[in-house]
Amino acid sequence: MDEIRGALEQAGAESYFGEDVSQLQHALQSAHLAEREGVGASSIVAALLHDVGHALSGLSEDVAAAGIDGRHEVVGASFLSRFFGASVTAPVRHHVDAKRWLCVREPGYHEGLSQASRLSLELQGGPMDDEEVREFEQRPFWDEAVKLRRFDDRAKVPGLDVPGFEHYESMIAACLEEAS
Ligand code: FE
């Protein structure tokens, strides 16, 4: 638990890449949206920890502006696989591809992305082609990744008051248990 909390807080104070909220705020808002939507504990935990790879890759949040894709979803998912099963790690691993999928499958989605998110999209491969869409929809928990993506996109509200890390500790513990 301490290690998970530490990883989340490591980048906590840093601003969330081109947005007006901190990384920690972004994580807590994502989890809060997930909980309000009534998804399961593993999806809430995935939302809370989906960007943990940003901190772990040791790359600054401005890397996309410099034209580098740090593959934070892969870094994050492999860190989390030490603690959790696929119901947590798969949505994290696929949440970037979920954005590429939504660009194709949901009319108006691309236009609604923030500028920072559009910039990173290009580095991440842009909207999926038909073959990629088919492949994506075969992956375990791909639909959870799409849900996570929607929370992610909305979790950028400056100054929003949401529950802190402690609120999620029992859910995290339950997911740790499940995986062990
Ligand atoms: Fe995010």
The run of helices and strands is HHHHHHHHHHH
What Rg is obtained from the alpha carbons, in whole angstroms? 15 Å
SS element count, helices: 11
Q: Could you name the ranges where pLDDT drops below 50 across 5 or more consecutive residues?
A: none
Identify the bound ligands. Answer: fe (iii) ion
**What is the percentage of strand-forming residues?**
under 5%
Output mean pLDDT: 90
Q: What coarse outline follows from CA principal-axis ratios?
A: globular
Terminal CA distance: 14 Å
Regarding quaternary structure, what we see is single chain
For the sheet with most strands, the description reads: none
Class from helix and strand fractions: mainly alpha
Fraction of residues in helix: 55-70%
Number of strands: 0
Describe what you observe in this structure.
- By secondary structure, the protein is mostly helical.
- The chain is built from eleven helices and no strands.
- Helix 2 crosses helix 10 and helix 3 (41-49) packs across helix 6.
- The longest helix has 20 residues, at 86-105.
- The radius of gyration is 15 Å and the shape is globular.
- The chain starts with a helix and ends with a helix.
- Bound molecules: fe (iii) ion.
- The site of fe (iii) ion has 4 residues, from loops.
- Fe (iii) ion (FE) binds at residues 26, 50-51, 152.
